[in-house]
């Protein structure tokens, strides 16, 4: 896919299933991604992340040759573009997490998000890139704002997380 210094983003491979199962059973990661009441075992990882009909590009994030996280990107479908007000635009969304918590708060997330935005703008000709973090996920929101994302719309009760519907921000990056 691409590399930026010590950061490398590569396509998800079958052998990566154990990494996803490890990360997605860690309560620290699950606090904001999927929920602590919703851990993944190997069977669930294989069902969710390796579906053949999926239109999402799924990738592993490496830093200094260590596998540390996950990122996916996808073109928004027509229904979602209409909901967000992007009907005639080429818009991509991303979701990501750093699964190795010792790599948190070191600027790697900012490097990852800004590198992915550059990739999507240059190679996929995206007009905008969007994300929808939970409003309470202040660390992620600060990271995205550092990368040039702006909060554009509150999405009330957007995501079922740990038994409650949580508000999210629609955040966008555009040149």
UniProtKB/TrEMBL annotation:
The keyword Transferase applies. One of its GO terms (biological process) is response to antibiotic. It comes from the Bacteria. Residues 7-175 form the N-acetyltransferase domain. GO terms for molecular function: N-acyltransferase activity. Keywords: Antibiotic resistance, Transferase. The keyword Aminoacyl-tRNA synthetase does not apply. PROSITE patterns: GNAT (PS51186). This is Aminoglycoside 6'-N-acetyltransferase. It comes from Thalassobacillus cyri.
């Amino acid at each position: 896919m691409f590399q930026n210094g010590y950061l490398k983003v590569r396509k998800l491979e079958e052998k990566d299933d154990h990494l996803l199962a490890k990360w997605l059973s860690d309560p620290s990661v699950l606090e904001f991604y999927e929920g602590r009441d919703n851990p993944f075992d190997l069977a669930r990882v294989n069902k969710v992340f390796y579906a053949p009909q999926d239109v999402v590009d799924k990738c592993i994030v490496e830093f200094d040759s260590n596998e540390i996280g996950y990122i996916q990107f996808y073109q928004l479908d027509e229904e979602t573009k209409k909901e967000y007000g992007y009907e005639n635009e080429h818009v991509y969304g991303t979701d990501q997490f750093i699964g190795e918590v010792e790599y948190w708060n070191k600027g790697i997330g900012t490097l990852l998000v800004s590198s992915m935005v550059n990739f999507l703008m240059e190679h996929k000709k995206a007009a905008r890139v969007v994300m929808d973090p939970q409003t309470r996920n202040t660390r992620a929101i600060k990271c995205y704002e550092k990368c040039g994302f702006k909060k554009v719309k509150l999405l009330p009760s957007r995501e079922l997380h740990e038994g409650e519907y949580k508000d999210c921000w629609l955040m966008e990056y555009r040149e």
